[in-house]
Structures are given as C-alpha cells and as structure tokens.
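Here is one chain, start to finish.
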Amino acid sequence: MFLKNRATQPPLEKKAKRKERLLLILSGVLIGCGFPPFPFPFTLFLFFGLIPYLSVIKNRKTLAEINRATYLTFFVFSLITLYWVGSWQKESDPFLMIAGGTLLFFEPLLFLIPSTLFYLTKKTFSFRTALILFPFFWAAYEYLYMLTDISFPWLTLGHGLAEFIPFIQAADTIGAVGLSIIVIYINVFLFEAFSDYSSSRKKAIINLSASILIFTIVICYGYFRMGTLKVSNQDIKIGLIQPNIDPWEKWNVTDLNSLTKEYLDLSQKAVNKGSRLIIWPETALPVFLTDGSYESTLDSIYSFLRRNNVYLLTGMPDVKYYFPGEKIPGDVRMNKIGSTYYATYNGILLLSPNSGFIQRYGKMKLVPFGERVPFLDQLPFLGKLIRWGVGISSWNVGRDTVDFTLPAIEDQIPSFKNNTKDSIRISGLVCYESVFPYFVANFVQRGARMIAVVTNDSWYGKSSGPYQHKEISVLRAVENRRSVVRAANGGISCIINPLGETKIQSKLFTKDVIVGDVPLENTETFFTKYPMIIPAMSLTISLWVLGIFLLSYLKQRFLGSKIE
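Its structure:
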C-alpha cells in the first residue's frame, strides 16, 4: 500500500518531497560539520545549519511528519559526529561495534523530544510561538538526556562551539546548554528573516537585526571577559604522562614490572622538568593495585614518589571489600570463595610521598554498554548477557563526588609562586565524566581549584572521537573558570587555562610527557553557583506547554471546544 501510494504521487509532489529530503540532509550535514574535528570556520555552520530543517517542518502538518523529518536530519548529524563510537578497528570487540552501530540509530530518536514539543506548541498556539519556544525545548532535551542510564550527551550544541573561544566565554554564566539556546535562537531569527524577505522587508530586517544583536552581545561579552579576567598567579607545575600503550593488549599484560617501569621512566622526565604532581591516564595499570596482590609494584611507585618528593594522581582499577557486619551497598558482588562482598570501580588514586594513605574516587558516570549495562540494577540478568572482552564492562557506580586534597606546603610543592598553608583541592574526572557540565560543577562547588581528567581515547583510533572529547573539556574550563588538565593514554593530553585556551597539547598516538604551570583558581562563576537555572527554566516552559496542550485536548474532547 505504501509503495502504491508513492507510485501514484503527482510528479510535482514527488519533486517537492525530494527537495525537502535534500534540505533535511543539508541541515544534518551543516550542523555535523560544525563540530570538531572540523576547524573553527566550520563552527559557524551551527548558527544557520538548522534553517533548512525549520523550513521543512514549518509546512509539516502532523506529528508523524515532523518527527520523520527530525529523525532524518539528526540521523545525518549523528552519523557525521558519532560514527566512531563502535571503534571499527580489527581489534574491536563485536559487542562494542554492535553497541556503536545501535547508538547511531538510537541517538536521533532523542531529538524527537524538542520536535514533539514544537508540534504541541504549534497546534495549541501558533507556529511563531513554537519557534520562539523551540530553543527551550531543545535545552530541556539536552538536560534530560544527561539524567538516565543511557545518557550520552556528547552532541550538546554548545560543545560544538569549543574552538570559538570568544563566543564560549558566556558559558561562565549560562553553561554549554545555555550556549545551545543562543545558537538555536540565532537560527530561528535568521530563518524568520529568510521567510519574511519576500512578503515583508521590515520584518525580515527586524529578525536579521535580532540575530546579529544576539551574536554581537555574546561576542562583546567574550572579548570583555578575555580582556579583564585575572588568572591566578598561584600555580602548580604538573607533568602529564602519555605512554601510548595499546589498549587492547594492555589488559592481557603479563609483565607488570615492565609496564610500571615505563610509566616511572616517563614520570622521571616530568620530574626533571620540575613537576611536583604527576598524572597518569585512565586505568594506567590493568590490575587492582591496592588489593594486596601487587605489593612489589606499589612499593616501586612509592619509592619513586619518596625519592623525588612528588605526588601521583592516577587512573586505576580499584576494588573495595565488604565484610560481615559492615553496611553493604546493594550493587556489590559476592566472592564465593572468601564469603566477602566487593565492588570494583574505574577509579582515580592519589598517592603521597609522605604517607601510605591513598585518596580514592570511583567513576560515577559510566559509559552505557561500554562500562556498564544500562538498567543493570533493575534488570540484573542483563549483566550476564552483555559483556565485552577487555574486562571493563561491569564497573560499579562510584558513591560520591570527591575532591583530592594536596598539601600546599612550600618544601613539598616548591613550584607555588604564592604559597599558603591551605590545602589544595583538585577534582579528578574519569574520561566520559567531562561531558557532563552540571556534574563537573558539583566538584568545583566543593572547592576544587583545578580539574584533572584521566582518559583513554585510544579505543577509537585516529577518528573524530578523541578530538571532540578534548574540545569538550574546553567548555568545562570556561564554565567554572578552572584550569583543566588531561592525561590521555594515547592523546590528546593537554593543559587548558580558565579562558578555554589550550596552552600545550600532545599529538595522537605518540609517547609524550607534557609539563606546564597550571593556575589554581578559587572564585566561583555564576554558572558554578547556579548551574540549574537554564534547565529549570527550560523544563518549566516545556511542562507548561505540555499541560496547556493536554487541557486543550481534554476540553475539546469532552466539551467540544478549544481553550482560547
């Protein structure tokens, strides 16, 4: 029947449908090319890339028609930006490739949230009202997507602006999601100007002026902040270790001593350049270093720290055991041999040269399918069905945001220009956690003076993924006005200052040591203090529209009239 209907379509209708499909694909291509690793000039595509899409959905009458158009546009967008998620290398685990392929088809479904709200507003009020509120519907979707077990908010539009340094300075007030609202408003006003040009030059000029005004205000604010922001003159010299170890082979390592020596040799180079804090990447060693089975390895690391009087912050698999009589969380597993319970974490450890006490953090935002099966707590049997072959698909979720405390004492950290007796708090994020703006703000609210990200993007080869991941950290630096340092196994390792400027970075898939002075800030931005303003506003508007539509629908159905 479907094919028959298509066959009987008039030639003009077929031509119009083909034109619409091309416009929808064009929108997907434009906003896709606005994201890294496409260089800065392509970023500007984000400011008008939605115009073809808006021109199509303007004429769509039903929800199904609007959502089909939306799916096509954002499937193209997802394909361009997220093609790399399945890894697609010869070493890749089949399950990882299946999960990556599934994501490409699932991700566009999330964009049906703003398009559905757009339709409800258009039906209840007017097309123009729907256009004006559309940016808030989009922001509501971006925030809601960060909350579930299947969250992968990589494609927040604000993240695509990372290389447009003057423009993203506004993130210290409105965050990356707020930047998304601005981008969409500029698209909306440019679309209105384009639509009104033939019928009313005056309206077209007003809408064009509105888009230019918004862009100008944000840019002027950006240059003002870049010219007036005073970066702290208190800093710490940090060494970032990039060992470039094959991530697939590392989990089969048999010579742990050799691997540890490689890390320590690279760390010595950082110490020789004055580093007082060394940072190793995510899961630097493929063992539970502190479970009592690797005392000689741990001793060699402590010997290095004491000899050089330095601290080590490292990504590391971590395990916590629970014994009879202790309060046992609900997600732990049982060791049947020893009748003990345990939980494993993709963690970060801080080791000190002066104490055997180890500060710990367990990753709280786990990559869906890659690190944890979604809804595993509700459906435990999924854990047995879904696993992939490098031993990292079943981590427990970390319990709390933790800031690492580093003593700021002159004889321990002589690189401080202005030393104090106060301790220094550092937030440690594991890989994917740097994608979540509101999550990161929680660390800074607790007093973190810099942000450290340990990661391993080597799973994805020389694809767009590592470049995008690095640039996302730029937004976290600006939102909180904190330096961000990244230690990545195969790159990109870097130091980003509080303005979002990358001061130094490594190349992909090279063995490298990066050493630099990292400013330590202690003031909170408006975004850090009040991160939930934009999400709360967007959700309120979205729920209000939904409520009005439901009331209108019920009144029409039962009373035979519409709400005026």
